[in-house]
Amino acid sequence: MSTTPVIGVLALQGDVREHLIALAAADAVARPVRRPEELAQVDGLVIPGGESTTISKLADLFGMAAPLRERIAAGMPVYGTCAGLIMLADKILDPRSGQETFGGIDMIVRRNAFGRQNESFETGVDVAGVEGGPVEGVFIRAPWVESVGAAAEVVAEYDGHIVAVRQGNALATSFHPELTGDHRVHALFVDMVRAAL
Description:
About 25% of the residues lie in helices and about 30% in strands. With about 200 residues, the chain is an alpha/beta fold. The model has no long low-confidence stretch (mean pLDDT about 95).
């Protein structure tokens, strides 16, 4: 049996290409996922950054919301960055009207918590489970995690705020590691997917 996992990137909106490149660099077969039948063919899924309200609406439009919730609830490994973190939260503090998440991590998140687009920044972040020193995190209109439940594990903090969480097969970061050329967080996720095969 092959130990090369097939990992999809939810390709409804956001920086899909960068995640595909990072996953391939971390020894996964990476492919875009837009439809339920494509979702059924992957071992794990990345939910990229973008605009969480748009992702929520497009997931409904493409018939992806229900199958995604089912696969995540059934334990499919999933990794969300920025807006993807919001989509994996069980609760949003300040949702837009009609905004739904996929759930999967017992956490409460605050959208755009680090400020607007012009307040974006890059900084080193120590991520538990990632060897070799801090990961360069790119924060773009980034959310943060207000609180986590008992099942969720905080794996990174920045400036007193939770910016990365893991719960079972689900991983989420407020920042974008796919924009830096450092593929260690993706390698951590690929290992999670491999372990779940």
